[in-house]
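One-letter codes give the sequence; the fold follows as C-alpha cells. An example follows:
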Amino acid sequence: MRRLGSVQQKIPCVFLTEVKEEPSRKRDGQSFQVVATETVNPLALEASIDSALVTEKLDGTCCYVTLYQGEPYLWARLDRKPNKQAEKRFKRHQRAQQSCEDFTWNVEEDFKSVPESWTPAHGVKHHNGRPMPDEHGHTPGWVPVEKSNKQYCWHASVVDYEARAALVLRPCSGDENVLEITAVPLADLQDQTLELIGTNVNANPYKLGNKKQPVHCLVPHGSIEVRKPPPVDFQQLLCWFQESLEGQVEGIVWHCSDGTLIKVHRHHLGLKWPDGDPCLSNRPVVVRVEEHTNGLFPSFSILHGRSFSRLQDVQLEP
C-alpha cells in the first residue's frame, strides 16, 4: 500500500452512479449530473470498506511532492483533457448510451497539448508508449510548480525551495482536536499528495484570509480523520451530511487496507456545498512557523506561537 492518502487517479464513488439529464450542481453550464444510486459499489465491498479509515475530502486543488531535477519539488495537478471537438463527440456518446464506456479516443488528435515537463500520474495505462485517458476522457498528471509560472502563483506561495520546505496544515501531534500551521521539509512529504486550500482556491469555502492578505496552505491527504463516521448506507450518509456538525464537509474518503480509495461527495447525494460553516473552518489552530534567516514564510512567522479558536480567524498582518 502506498503512503496513506496518495491520490493519483480519480477516486470511485462508494455507490454505483447514474447520469441524469438535469443541470449539474457541481459544474456551471453542465446540462447533466452524475448522482449516486443506493447500491453500494462492489469495489468498496471487495476492499472491505467497513474496516477502512475514514477521512475528510477537502475542497481545493490536488498537489504532489516528488523529485524534479534531483530535488523534492511541489507538483500541481494538470489533467490532459480532450479538445472541443473530441469533448462534443464524447458528450453525445455519454448522453446516448447513459455511460462513458465503449467510447474510442484518437490519442494522437483528440487531446490538448501539455507542457514538456508534464508527467502522467501513477497508474495511468499506456498503449504503444502513450498514456491513455480514463473513462471520463482525462489523463491525470502533474507539472512542477516553478516560481516563474504565474498560473501556479498560489501553489508557489506555500513552498520555499531555498529552505526546501512547505507550509502545511495538519492535526497537532499532541492533540488531534487542534490543527497546526507549520513548515515541513519537502523531503518529509516525498511521494505524498496534498490539497492546496485557501483564499484563491475554489471560491475559498473555508473562509481563509482575504484578498489583501491571502492565506494558503497544504493539507496532507488522509490527515483529517472523521472520528465517528456513518455506516456505508445511502440514507444514513445522507442524514449525517445534513444533520451532523462533523458532516459539514465536501465529502469523505475511505482508505481501505489494500490501498483502495473510495469517496462520496455531497453532490452525489443531491446536497449543496458549501452549506453553512464547513467543519474545518471551525477547528482551533496554532501557528508554529519559526523565523528563519532565509525569510521562510515571513507573514506566518510573525504569528508563531499564536492560537486561534477557529481556522477562519487566522489573519495575516498587513
